[in-house]
Amino acid sequence: MIKDLEILVKMQAFDDEISERQMLLQTLPEELNTLKTSLEEANQVLAETKHSLEENLKNQKLKELEIKDNIEKMNKYKNQLLTVKTNKEYKALNSEISHLEGKNNEIDDEIIVFMEEEINIKSSLENVISVQKNADENLKANEERLRKKIKQVKQEIDVLRKNRNDIAGEIPRQIVKRYAALIKNKNRKAVVFDINNSCGGCGFNIRPQVVIEIYEGSKINYCENCGRILIYKPETD
Ligand SMILES: [Zn+2]
For residue 232, how far is its CA from the centre of ligand 1 (angstroms)? Predict the structure, then answer.
C-alpha cells in the first residue's frame, strides 16, 4: 500500500476514535441532566406532599375549632334554657341545640376522613423522602465523576485531533482537504473497506478493474458513487 493510503487509513482510525468520544460528549451530559431532573422532580413531589400534610393538619384544627365553637354555643343555649319564660323560646333554643349537635356529628365525620387522609399522606411521605434522598445521593455521587469524564473526553479528542493533523502533514494538501470534506459530510467515514466488491460506505458496486487497483493499493481510489476512499479489507481468521 502506498504511503498516502497508509496515512489515510491511520487518519480514519483517529477519526473513528474521535467519533466514539463525540458520542460520549452527547450521552454524558444527558446522563448528568437525567440525574438533575430526577432530583428536581423528587424535590417537587416532596414539597407537594409536605404541603398537603400541612393543609390536612390545618383543616383538622379548623374543624376542631368549629366543634369547640359549637359546644360553647350549645352551653350558652343550655344555660338560657334555665331562664326562658315561654314555651316558644324553649322550643327555639332546643331546636338550635339539636341543630348544633347534628352539625358537630357531621364535623366529626369530616375529621375522621381527614385523619384517614393524614395516615395516607404520612405513609407516602416516608416513601417520597426516601426517593428524594436517593436522587440527591445519586447526583452527588455521579456529578463530579461525569464532569471529570466530560473534561477528560474533550482532552482526549484534542490529543487525537492533534495526532491526526500531525500525520496529515505527511500527505498532499489536496488529499487532506478531500479527506476532511468526506469526514464532515459522510458521517465521519472517509476511508472504507471494499466489502465483497462493493463500497463499505454506500454499498455501490465497484468495477472489477478498480477492485484490482484497490487490492494492489498502488493509488488512491474513490467510490464512484459516494466519493469515499476505498481500501482492501485484509483477511482475518
Ligand atoms: Zn460509496
Answer: 14
